[in-house]
Amino acid sequence: MARQDGPAETMTGQSRMQLEQLHSKRQAIEALGLKFGAKRIRVFGSVARGEENDRSDIAFLVCFPRGYDLFTQRLPLTEELSLLLNRAVEVVPEHKLSRVHRTPRQAGNQGAACTSPRSFHASTPGARVPPVFRESTPTA
Question: What is the pTM of this model?
């Protein structure tokens, strides 16, 4: 009997390809993050879980400094990432995550300015956000 690729197998291949495309643009993504003051850029949501479809956006979890500006940092970063990736993008600051989606240590630091290096849970409780993009340290 010939093997047929079902929807789950096709989606896995598409997901792998999506993550590979993101990895291939890693330097450009990190450069945009630095341009707008964002650190620790990570993919989460359906793309990270391998469950995205053609209509899915790419969700990034980022660390902005305290007092960041929505109009000069977060929104322009979202727009430029969308242009770079030719796909809808959502940029979510770490401090905006619900306590339900944080590790116990992070839940106690809700107001902290991106102090914890640990991964956050994905949008499904119990799933971890893969460190697709690790924190970049600017070189002097």
Answer: 0.67
CA 101 to chain centre: 14
Phi-psi region of 2 (alpha: psi -120 to 50; beta: other; left: phi over 0): beta
Q: Which residue's structure tokens are 């322009």?
A: 76
Going along the chain, which residue ranges are E strands? 39-44, 58-63, 89-93
Burial 30-39 (b: 16+ CB within 10 A, else e): bebbeebbbb
- Whose structure tokens read 């697709």? 132
How many CB atoms within 10 Å of residue 61? 26
The one-character DSSP state at 95 is G
pLDDT tens digit string along 75-109? 999 999 999 999 999 999 998 887 655 555 544 54
7 has a pLDDT exceeding 60? no
Domains of the chain: 9-107 (3.30.460.10)
